[in-house]
Amino acid sequence: METGIIKSVGDKIIVAKENTDNCNSCKMKMLCHNQSITEFEVITSEKFAIGEKVEIIINPYKRIFASFIVFILPVLILIITYYISFSLFFKSEPFSIVLSIISLLISYVIIKYINKKVDNNNDIKIKKLEERNENSS
């Protein structure tokens, strides 16, 4: 369970999450900017107060999708570009390698585009910790 503290309330709520020991073993920890505190913007209709503790709920699909896009898609594009350019077009290994590296740069642009689209889809939810404790008793 990820927890955080409400830092700001307005149109968007800003939640600060303190990185824990779980963050140290996470393979994606460098995506949290290597800071001791990570902040999230959340849009919700619920009312929260500054300093209130909340549970941070991140859609598991979003985590898997982000992992695929960041770690697997560039490698797939690199390999596919190499094989297509080498076998179909040029039969030149140095040229195929250069073309593959260029495709890797293009995949970076694709990732930035996908990131902008996904950021508009707010899949991060927050829930008051007190509600959760009352429901489990």
List the helices and strands and how they pair.
Layout: E1 2-8, E2 13-18, H1 21-25, E3 37-42, E4 53-58, H2 60-90, H3 93-120, E5 124-128, H4 129-136
Antiparallel strand pairs: 1-2, 1-4, 2-3, 4-5
- DSSP E strands, number: 5
Q: What's the helical proportion of residues?
A: 40-55%
The number of helical runs is 4
Residue stretches low in confidence (pLDDT < 50, at least 5 long) are none
Mean pLDDT: 78
Task: Describe what you observe in this structure.
There is one protein chain. This protein is of the alpha+beta class. It contains four helices and five strands, in the order ββαββααβα. The chain has helices at 21-25, 60-90, 93-120, 129-136; strands at 2-8, 13-18, 37-42, 53-58, 124-128. Helix 2 runs antiparallel to helix 3. The model has no long low-confidence stretch (mean pLDDT 78).
Keywords for this entry:
137 residues, alpha+beta, 53% helix, elongated
Short description:
The protein has 137 residues and is α+β, with helices and mostly antiparallel strands.
